[in-house]
Amino acid sequence: SDLFILDDPDLKDIDPVVLKHCHAAAEICILEAGKQKADVAAISTCLEDCKLDKERIEQFCAEYQPREPVTVVSFSIGRSPLHITDVSWRLEYQIKNNQLDKTYQPSYLVTLNVENSDSRAHPDVIFSCTMEQLQDLVGKLKDAAKGLERAAQM
């Protein structure tokens, strides 16, 4: 079965569609928490607002380990790596958050168009980042290009 989580005997009585939705919601929660650099206290408060019981909140927070946000996207899907064919971006400006607090935070929504040497279609890679993260990414890409130039000259 492609859905190895459905093989867990504790989950056999749960509708597979509901289980997939729960798994996706947990992934989004973890990704957003990492993106916002949320600590365990902030996550606990958010989950309490979502009406989760204390035992589940404690279990989730025990497993959650805050880390630096991911700024590099892996492109090694399938047998051959993906190639970026085009990049587009747009400036987003968040005026309010979910709690209706005014935030006024600019961010960039970046879309990478990708292709693969095999003829399978691939969805675009889309991510959001701050100006500092975007500048860091551009700097790293420039360093990589210089490294390739030096390697080609040898």
Q: Can you walk through the features of this model?
A:
The protein has 154 residues and is an alpha+beta fold. It folds into two domains: 16-76; 83-153, no CATH class. 41% of the residues lie in helices and 21% in strands. It has a three-stranded antiparallel β-sheet, with helices on one face. The protein is extended. The N and C termini lie far apart (48 Å). Residues 68-78 have low confidence and may be disordered.
Overall body shape: extended
Count of discrete domains: 2
> What Rg do the Cα atoms give?
20 Å
Number of strands: 3
| Global mean pLDDT | 76
> Roughly how many Å apart are the termini?
48 Å
Strand content: 15-25%
Helical fraction equals: 40-55%
Question: How are the strands of the biggest sheet laid out side by side?
Answer: 1-2-3
Oligomeric state of the chains in view: single chain
- Poorly predicted runs: 68-78
Query: How do the SSEs run, as a string of H and E?
Result: HHHEEEH
Structure annotation, total helices: 4
Q: Which structural class do the helices and strands define?
A: alpha+beta
What kind of sheet is the major sheet? Answer: 3 strands, antiparallel
Family: Belongs to the COMM domain-containing protein 3 family.
Protein name: COMM domain-containing protein 3
Pfam family, one: COMM_domain
InterPro entries: COMM (IPR017920), COMMD3 (IPR037355)
